[in-house]
Design a protein that fits this description.
The structure is a single chain. By secondary structure, the protein is α+β, with helices and mostly antiparallel strands. The chain has one domain (about 5-140): Hotdog Thioesterase (Thiol Ester Dehydrase, Chain A), CATH 3.10.129. It has 3 helices and 6 strands, in the order H-H-E-E-H-E-E-E-E. The protein starts with a helix and ends in a 5-residue tail after the last strand.
């Protein structure tokens, strides 16, 4: 991961996900690897293997997890150290199946306001074919005490 991804793009530490501390989280269980992220968006990937439904196809929920992870991290970077980003809506359209390899997601900011942030996340297979298009909206709130 780039240094920008580790710091959320503004040089602060301690309020974004440390890629070394995800083993016991959904990010770790899904095998998601983060490339980079910041307020404008982010990117990452995950394996198809281990994230399939009974027919051997990438599970739609797995695509949703990748999309929400990338969008939420970008929204957290946008929120800053004194605020948090909480997902309030996620919509996914699944365009095609993926059976092998990895899927790669790219989140792009559509709106970055004071109370809401919305990202479009495109998930593609190893050949660059669009697998899923998602849109995530996060509520930006003050960080609760102790969080």
């Amino acid at each position: 991961m780039s240094e920008a991804g580790r710091t959320g793009g503004d040089g602060t530490r301690g309020w974004v996900v440390d890629p070394d501390d995800v083993a016991d989280t959904l990010i770790g269980r899904m095998g998601i690897e983060l490339d980079e992220y910041g307020p404008e968006g982010g990117s990452g990937s995950m394996p198809v293997a281990g994230n399939t439904q009974p027919y051997g196809l990438l599970h739609g929920g797995a695509s949703a997890v990748l999309a929400e992870t990338l969008g939420s991290l970008a929204a957290a970077a946008h929120a800053g150290a004194d605020r948090i980003a909480v997902g309030i809506e996620l919509g996914c359209t699944h365009h095609r199946a993926a059976r092998t390899g990895r899927v790669h997601g790219v989140a792009t900011a559509l709106h970055r306001g004071g109370s809401l942030a919305t990202y479009e996340i495109v998930v593609r297979d190893d050949e660059g074919r669009r697998v899923c298009t998602a849109r995530l909206t996060c509520l930006i709130r003050l960080r609760p005490p102790g969080a």
